[in-house]
Amino acid sequence: MTYYFNKLENEFLSRGVLHTSMLLLDRNSSIDFIKKIDPLGGKLLGFDGFFLNSNSIQPSMEHSRDYSDSDIDGINDALNFLANKQLDGMFFEIVTSGIE
Hints:
This protein is of the alpha+beta class. The protein has helices at residues 7-12, 27-35, 74-84, and strands spanning 17-19, 22-24, 43-52, 57-66, 90-97. The chain has one domain. It has a three-stranded antiparallel β-sheet, covered by helices on one side. Strands 1-2 form a two-stranded antiparallel ribbon. The chain is globular.
């Protein structure tokens, strides 16, 4: 199966886990990814947190944010969230727009 990712997602493929068509990144890779969105002219629409184990994936609404209809600076909010939360074992799908 072929998946289509933007250039930032392609840059991070080796650092993440592919689950169905989602690129899931650990906390540190998510922080690095988010820091690159603005310089590429993109926008952070949100992120979704997941717990992964060998047999399943479990979404976590507590560890997800939606900035698509918000006036909040999503990049700074996301970076603060990821830096200040206990997130061991969590992976994140980062949703962006405006990046080819």
